[in-house]
Structures are given as C-alpha cells and as structure tokens.
C-alpha cells in the first residue's frame, strides 16, 4: 500500500481522489452534498487567504482504498486542521482510515498545530450515530458539536412568507457585495462568526476584512459557483441590519445551499430572518431543486424559521476534535 499526496494540480490524480471522497458521500447520505470535482480541485490547487487544502490517498496498485481531505485554516483557528476521511466500502474495517489519520496527524504535528478536527456528515438524524462516530470515538476524538442537516424541495410558494418589516428596506446582490455596503457587510460577517453556535468546539471567530470578502468572492467565481444575497437596511440609520446568502453551482443545479443568515444584535426580534430569506429564495429558485442547510439543534429560532419554510431534518452531522 502506498500513500499519495494530492495537491489538485494533476487533474487525473485529483479525479481519482475525488471519486473516492464524493463516492462515499453519495453512498452514506440520502442527500449528498459537497463541492463538484472542478470546484474542489480549484479550491485545492489555488492559493487562498483563508484556507489551504491538500489530500492524501491510500492506494494499492490501481485501487484507491481511502482518502483524507485536509483543511489548514489560515485565518482564525490556525491551531486546527480539519480532516475528512472516506474509505471505499469494500475496504472498511481493515485499518485504512486509521492509517490515513496517522499520516495526517504526523503532518499536523510536524507543522506545529495542535488540534485535529473531523466532521461526521452521515449521522442518524435523531441519534447522530454512524460508522464515522464509532471510528472517531475509537481513535480518541471527543464530540464537540452537532448540526442538523435539513432539506426542502423547491420551488416553494414564498408569497405567504414574504412580509416586509416596517422601517427596513431590502437590497440584493449576486457575486460581489456592492462597495457601498462592503464595510458594513464585513461587520455582519464577523458578527455571524462570533454569534453562530459552535457548541464546545475550539473556535476562534473570524475577523472579516474587505480583502477577505473579495478573496472569497473571487474564489467562488473561479469555482463557477453563484451566490444570492438579500440584506435588510434600517432606513432611518442606513445600518445594514441582516443578511442571508444562498448559492450553488451549475454543475449540480438540483442542489442549492442556504448559507449564513444573520441579524445584527440590535435589530433582533422583528422577523428580519424570514424577511431576508423569503425574497432570497424567490430570487434563487428557478426550478426543481433541493435546498440544504445546517443548524445547531440548540439554535431554536433559526430552526423555527426553517421549519416555516418547509425544511425537515435528514441527518445529523457531528464535529469531533482530538488534541495532539
Ligand atoms: C468512518 C470510516 C472512515 C472508517 O474507515 P475504516 O477504514 O473502516 O476504519 P478503520 O478500519 O481504521 O477502523 C478503526 C476502528 O474504528 C472503529 N470503527 C470503524 N468503523 C466502525 C463501524 N462501522 N462500527 C463500529 N466501529 C467502527 C473500530 O473500533 C475500528 O477498529 P476495529 O476494526 O479493530 O474494531 C468509514 O466507515 C467511512 O468512510 N465512513 C463514511 C465516511 C465517514 O463517516 N467519515 C468520517 C468522517 S471524518
């Protein structure tokens, strides 16, 4: 058996790596999610301000047995490396994931980082348990957080949900935040990073800057992704009070994602969450698709808003950490 490092620059090698990674997701999840092959390759091969990604494969002859995807955070959480393990079903319980994890841990130690974090995507929606959680426990990881994976079939009739909130106007944009809103949008993104429930995770909120926003936007464009943002502006003060973002890729038009929704602390309690989500949904939904979102089970207000839109839980993802 041979260990192969993958950096995304060799498209054929990357395709083999990706087939294992996404093949396992397809196998494990009723509603598989994740970047398409080219989006993932661009992420791995490119240079980005916030993250560096690399891959490890365990290969026997021409057969790929399993892979690990490593995310090295460069902004916030710079002590942590996220590792996603995927093993081809017929090679399981033969120590493949353990071997890949050992190689990853050795690298993490060599680079002076302290925490290995892993997300188990395919937990049962109620218990959160799966092969991945059994593996994580067996390899000394501690459970730190959970998120409910929820889906809704589109299109849905949003008319009944679209309620303007007195004193606020909506603004919408696509791939780039307009210059006039950029500074305030940076504040809201940082607020989101501070306020989103992260359970017991080792989590250092990201201090967003205009440069980081532009870098993230450029990466999404390079990946071929599209993003729809709706924000609410407090008319009297000109303050950007709330925003929501949804997006996807033409590679998988049947799969859309609900990303952040955030209401500035001083503007909560007015129904701004649904007030930005409903029109954003109206803008993005053009045909049949499934929209995905994730929320901490304790984030009751957000889950209530999602339930109003018709979202239902399909899996529980859990986040694990091992301190080296
Ligand atoms: C989780 C996963 C990566 C494990 O891969 P693997 O190569 O079978 O794992 P290993 O053979 O190294 O298992 C090591 C130990 O983990 C535990 N373990 C692994 N799978 C298990 C299962 N299905 N049930 C119970 N315990 C399990 C056992 O203690 C095992 O040791 P043992 O076989 O000597 O009893 C694999 O099942 C998989 O790809 N699952 C889907 C994707 C996923 O959940 N990834 C994890 C997210 S990071």
From TrEMBL:
Entries under InterPro entries matching the protein: Acyl_CoA_acyltransferase, GNAT_dom
UniProt domain N-acetyltransferase: residue ranges: 12-187
Gene Ontology MF terms in the entry: acyltransferase activity, transferring groups other than amino-acyl groups
Domain of life: Bacteria
Name of this chain's protein: Acetyltransferase (GNAT) family protein
Organism: Kribbella rubisoli
Lineage, broadest ranks: Bacteria, Bacillati, Actinomycetota, Actinomycetes, Propionibacteriales
């Amino acid at each position: 058996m041979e260990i192969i490092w993958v950096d995304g620059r060799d498209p054929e090698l990357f395709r083999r790596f990706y087939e294992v990674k996404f093949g396992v997701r397809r196998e494990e999840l009723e509603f598989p999610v994740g970047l398409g092959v080219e989006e993932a390759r661009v992420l791995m091969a490119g240079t980005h301000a916030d993250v560096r990604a690399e891959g490890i494969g365990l290969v026997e002859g021409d057969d790929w047995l399993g892979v690990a995807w490593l995310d090295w955070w460069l902004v916030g959480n710079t002590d942590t490396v996220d590792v996603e393990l995927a093993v081809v079903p017929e090679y399981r319980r033969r120590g493949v994931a353990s071997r890949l994890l050992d190689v990853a841990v050795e690298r993490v130690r060599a680079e002076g980082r302290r925490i290995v974090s892993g997300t188990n995507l395919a937990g049962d929606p109620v218990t959160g348990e799966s092969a991945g959680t059994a593996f994580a426990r067996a390899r000394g990881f501690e459970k730190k957080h959970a998120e409910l994976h929820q889906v809704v079939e589109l299109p849905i009739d949003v008319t009944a949900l679209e309620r303007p909130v007195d004193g606020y106007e909506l603004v919408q944009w696509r791939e780039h935040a307009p210059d006039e809103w950029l500074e305030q949008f940076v504040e809201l993104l940082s607020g989101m990073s501070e306020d989103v429930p992260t359970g017991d995770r080792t989590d250092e909120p990201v201090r967003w800057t205009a440069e980081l926003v532009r870098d993230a936007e450029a990466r999404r464009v390079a990946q071929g992704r599209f993003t729809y943002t709706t924000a609410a502006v407090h008319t009297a003060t000109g303050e950007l009070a709330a925003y929501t973002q949804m997006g996807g890729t033409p590679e998988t038009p049947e799969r859309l994602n609900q990303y952040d929704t955030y209401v500035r602390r001083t503007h909560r309690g007015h129904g701004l969450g649904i007030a930005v989500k409903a029109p954003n949904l109206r803008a993005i939904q053009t045909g049949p698709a499934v929209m995905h979102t994730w929320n901490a089970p304790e984030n009751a207000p957000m889950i209530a808003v999602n339930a109003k839109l018709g979202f239902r839980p399909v899996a529980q993802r859990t986040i694990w950490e091992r301190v080296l």
